[in-house]
Amino acid sequence: MTQNEQLRQHLVKLLRGGQAYRPMNELLDGLTLQEAGKKVQGLPYTIWQQLEHLRFTQHDILDFSRNPSYQEPTWPDDYWPAKEAPESEEQLQQSIEAITHNLEEMIQLVQDACNALFEPFAHGQGQTLLREAMLVAEHNAYHLGQITLLRRLLGTLK
């Protein structure tokens, strides 16, 4: 196995999580509509707002990584939802499914040997696929940690 192949395997493990913390599917397992929109005293966000921020940002990074005509959204307005709670169980599940789907899309980009890890994107400012994949992993870990903390404070995750 080449070093490039090893790097790609390590990136996939990093993106999927589960090495230093529980995988996303375990952290979100059993999340209810009521729990997702519940405020914790002293914190400025709900689990729903964290999920939607995670979904939007991950999709944005994926779009940047494969779209030469990428248009940058407005920070912070486009990245953070105004609503504190999902409108329905279906909306909550769609958000979680989109996060999972977009994560797998990023993993496919990383696994495809035709995609150079170190070559800067022509439409960027030096960003590479390696950098974007690591950004997704870091961003996901950060916000999944916040979701974990919220669920523990709400008493719904052990």
From TrEMBL:
Query: Gene3D superfamilies, per this entry?
Result: dinb family like domain
Domain named DinB-like is located at 21-147
The entry's protein name is: DinB superfamily protein
